[in-house]
Known about the structure:
single chain, alpha/beta, two-stranded antiparallel ribbon, 7 helices
Amino acid sequence: MRLLLLVMSDGRREYLERTMLSLGGILADVEHWVIHEDSGDPADAKWAAGKFPGWRVHATGARSGFGGAIRSAWDLIRADYPDATHVLHWEGDFTLNRPVEVRDMCAVLDDRPHLAQMALRRQAWNAEEIAAGGIIERWPGDFIEIKYGHTVWLEHRRWFTTNPCVYRAGLLDGGWPDGAESEGHFSAEVFADTEMRAGYWGARDEAPWVHHIGDIRAGTEY
């Protein structure tokens, strides 16, 4: 197992700095460290390279938007990191609340090929989630709790999320959709296979693993 940590950034330096600080406890589980910078400003990539030594900082020449940035990052991984078996995908405005066994998440994916990803639950964000008390509470009937040994996770078919998650590197081979609402289109492609599911790490009643700090959205083409 060779894990690549991909941090997606778009020039919001304060958010990226807080995100990176929170990730220190899981870096020992990672073989490759990549920051993908899509602000379009070379100064942001230069700042990141100086601030986070040991990380590869890859910058797009111009802002490519949400979907374009993922396509660029996936192309980079396929070309330059063929040994990577799993990708820990991390948007640059999420902090990790507590330690997590990332390799256990990867092991569950390897043991359960019907799972497209294993994500880390964030706090309630939009009005509907807040009113319900959380993401899972918003659609309680859509999530099935699975227990295997010392691991617990929830399985569902509601969406594929680019919030912090792990997926097998083979997922990159299909590419990421063009155009607006690309995350929704990718979800539809994944779940076109009626056997496929996605996972959230941890039990139904656990507190969120990650915290979304991105009050200001800078990306486009969601």
